[in-house]
Amino acid sequence: MTDITLIVNGEEKTASVPPETTLLKMLREDLNYTGAKLGCDVGDCGACTVLVDGMAVNACLMLAGQAEGKKIETIEGLSTLEEYHPIQKAFEDVAALQCGFCGPGMIMSTKALIDQGEDLTKQEIKDALSGNLCRCTGYTKIIEGVIDAYEEITGKKVPEENPRAA
Amino acid sequence: MVDDVKTKEKEVTLESLRKADDNLRLPTVPERTLFPKEIGIAAAREQTPAVGQRATRPDGRLHGLGQTKYIDDMFFPGMLHAKVKRAGIAHAKIKSIDVSEAEKMPGVMATLIGSEFPVNSFGPSLQDQPLLADDIVRHAGDGVAAVAAVTEQQALDALEKIKVEYEELPNVFDPLEAMRDDAYKIHNNESNIYASKTIKKGDVEQGFADSDFIFEKTFTTQMVEHVPLEPHASIAEWDANGRVTVHSSLGRITLGRADISRVLELPINRIRIIATIVGGNFGGKNEITTEPIVALLAKKTGRPVKCVYTREDEFISSTTRHPFVMEYKTGMSKEGKIMARKVRLVCDGGAYCSWSETTLGKACILSAGPYNISNLHVDAYAVYTTKTMTGAMRGFGAPQVCFAYESHMDDMAAALGIEPLEIRLMNAFHEGSASPTGQVLEAVVVEDSLIMASERFGWKEWQK
After folding, report:
1. Of A41, A66, A91, B284, which has the fewest CB atoms closer than 10 Å, so is most exposed?
2. What pTM value is reported for the model?
């Protein structure tokens, strides 16, 4: 067993875990942050996406030890008791969450993307979310939700895409 | 003076004790998803009327906040984790299963093999599937034993210590070969064909004789896995009154309850199934999989037991969409009117029946397409092979035949030099048409839909 300390959503958290424990397992089972999901366990589906020092990471592929001392952001850290996070609100409003299993991962990937502060096109949004799979195929709505959230947070506009270009 | 020092010391000690106490107490406060105490109702949910307006999901907010509790997000005190050992061999007789080494592994609390089930068979129409194979393995994903251990890793490690001796049996992978009389009989039946359906309407031979052209083509489709993002999962807890509570992501809990009652020989009133939010079903979670296994392991250990399929389990052992072999023969007039059609469907059912019978029925009825065909003959067969079993999946056989009849239609349109939309409109069902099984159809809008859709998506422009 190894003591590992993470800064999860701004709070320091320590747990004693076996060395093979992944970041996802430690978050879910030792620290009770069950928002990130285990979908495939091999880094394909992105349901386990959390932010490590601001970078979107597949938590199922990262060992807890590799995240020692790092800042982790999970879905639980977005909204506060006072404020509903704009990404979560946008996803709810456009009905981007069907079974919802991919939702937390999608939202965290979206957060990492918007936090970069760059101007985005629809294609760039699609590329940025390509590591997150949705099987109910709510992709259309998910992209719509990301655009809404991006416009809400940054005040910028995503340029209209020529439907024939794709 | 001394008193002052003592008081100070006491304060410091108390302070440090309080801190230590706080630290000790910290982990006992479970993490909680924060959410605003009062969020307004989403605009879309306030509006009336509902039709023509934006819609939202009632559970969407919880999904987005990460608050939804899927099975894998639930933990019970003392809960164990179960894993299932897969055969890894397509067809074999099991000579022996030795779990003694696995039981000695650290953390292992119980093991389970198929013969421990009071009734080791289930299935929605034919009860031909074992929960854990105890006699014969019929596909590589068949479970042969299960382990419950303190951690998932310990359970996985223990699976490697289970020794199973097999005597290989012939593999049957091709459904057409499986249909032959000399094929190895996978379920020891007279034939590997376990369901068949026939539809006859009019006189097909006469129809072909009256046709100007005859077109023939064979279409095949592949096996498709549902791949729900949430794997199959369940948790069972046995209580002192001999009742079992199963938390499950099953889509059909009442059927599941009846099946569990049958396999465990337990009165149905002693089984409680709590359906949880499902992380994707698509038809793949319509029958019991892990539920009776965790139920028995919970009984053996006296603890709650959770089993979550690995992604590999999901691919090799859960049901899939049926691969079809579809032979179409259609007689056409030179104007493009369908005169007669003969269809032979072979549905590769894999190792067990599951929902194949239902699928076959639907495929058979829909195989002629939404077209007026006076002379029709459809033969459909579901066949056992030694592959992952196939079951319910979105459409129950309809997507496979749709691919075939529409591709066939395109081929014929091209050969006859008729515009693809035109040939469909010429043959499509209209008000009062009779379906292949003789049902007179009302409120038929095939033609309207085709015309409206082709206008909306720019069919004419696309053709240029």
Report:
1. A66
2. 0.89
